[in-house]
Amino acid sequence: MARYEINGGKPLEGTVTISGAKNAAVAILPAALLVSGKCRVENVPDISDVRILLDILEGMGVKLAYPEPHVVELDSSEVQCTTPDPELVKKMRASYYLMGALLGRFGHAHVALPGGCNFASRPIDQHIKGFLALGADVDETEDYVALKPTEEGLHGARITLDMASVGATVNIMVAATLLPGQTVIENAAKEPHIVDLANFLNSMGAKIRGAGTDVIRVRGVQNLHGTTYTVIPDQIETGTLMIAAAATRGDVVIHGCIPTHMEALTAKLLEMGVRVTENDDSIRVRPQGVQRAVNVKTQVYPGFPTDLQQPMTSLLCMANGVSTVSETIFERRFMHLDELRRMGAHIKLMDHSTILIEGVRELYGAPVTVTDLRAGAALIVAGLMAKGVTEIYETSYIDRGYERIEEKLRSLGADIRREKLS
Ligand code: EPU
Fold first, then answer.
1. Residues taking part in catalysis
2. What is the average per-residue pLDDT within 14-39?
3. What pLDDT does residue 294 have?
């Protein structure tokens, strides 16, 4: 248990480097189960979700080595277990990717239902629809999902998702990689981590085309081979730091990112009157005059990411005028609002998906509690903006997805301390 203490109001200045993408790493690492051989994965973020996932894989018999920081070697040759430790599985969301990987490699899986950030009801009916179409017999209870082949066996299929679900796209793509025939995923998610996962699988010999578009085609192969692969930089960490730079009216160069992944956020910051300039793999955020209120609507990629909605809301708390934020991906992803109000924000919930933010001149430090990962990012941003001291509790949510965030912010001049609580 720990808390952050932030003495706010200091502009962030300097250069910071982005870690590997959480949501790519948590899809790629379980996909290494598909190959009876070695995978070396580089640029793996050192965050608690990844650590839990690696513990699960190790418990299943994957041999792990850590030759350098941020590099993991996985050897799944001797894995036989298709029932990952339910207690560990329940600790995180992305453990549901074990279903697709185990179904693809062994044709069987018995996986507890995942835990993770519970900011909304997060059904997995589209994952199940995919597994059924691929010829799996699905036994779903309140505690677990068990998969095995039906009599006709597992095979490629055409699946049209009801919504462009990231998780379902990953699970179907991974499961289909080793199945006979062609799988077509229509209305597929297009997020950068989907493309990264497809690149990883293709580097092992998979035949996947169309990742990054609405239609992904997977031609099943009989065998995969080991690979060396580097995870892309984290889009959401990049965005969080861009927002933090703007929120403190600082001057920050964010290195090792992919600016094209950031276009929706960059456009909104420019609209607010923030200066954003880009190079090949870096983005600089600087202040220029008054920051104006804007309207934000979350959408699937390349739209404004839901995972940046919460930190963006903090930034808008001190923008000049009235902003609206519409959350269209997850209902009620607004658990951070009460905490922001405690810091002096004027925010009104208009309905289950829209909030109205009236910009105030100051936010004030206060004790606040994190309810989920990106709510944590929002409270850090608010703490950096606020006058006085903000104490942030339940920081383990933040550790799930941000690597050494306090050290990165301190290197930019933030007055932030992490304190262990007994
Ligand atoms: N949905 C269903 N049924 C399904 C799957 C999704 O109704 O079977 C709904 C969800 O309830 C939601 C929408 O479809 O309303 C989109 O959900 P999606 O499946 O795309 O989200 P996810 O796979 O559960 C991933 C990320 C989230 C990120 C979303 C949206 C991982 C491990 N998680 O979640 O990341 O918010 O995509 O981009 O990749 C985070 O990093 O903080 C985080 C929550």
1. 117
2. 97
3. 98
Q: Identity (one letter) of the amino acid at 240?
A: T
Query: Is residue 306 lining ligand 1, measured as CB closer than 6 Å?
Result: yes
- Residue 166 Cα, ligand 1 centroid: separation in angstroms? 6
Residue closest to 75 by CA, chosen among 65, 88, 86, 62? 62
Beta bridge partners of 67: none
CA pseudo-torsion sign 29, 148, 177, 135: negative
74 Cα to the center of ligand 1, angstroms: 26
pLDDT tens, residue by residue, 362-408: 999 999 999 999 999 999 999 999 999 999 999 999 999 999 999 99
pLDDT above 70 coverage of the chain, percent:
99
DSSP string, 255-304: ES--GGGGHHHHHHHHHHT-EEEE-SSEEEEE--SPPBP-EEEB-STTSB
Q: Can you tell me the distance from the alpha carbon of 174 to that of 157, in angstroms, rounded to the nearest whole number? A: 13
Q: Which of 179, 170, 91, 61 has its CA nearest to residue 126?
A: 170
As a whole number of angstroms, the distance between CA 123 and CA 120 comes to 9
pLDDT value of position 117: 63
Q: Number of H helices and number of E strands within the chain?
A: 14, 23
239 phi and psi angles, rounded to 5 deg: -65, -40
Phi, psi at residue 84, to the nearest 5°? -65, 150
Q: Is the pLDDT of residue 332 over 90?
A: no
CB 333 less than 6 A from any atom of ligand 1: no
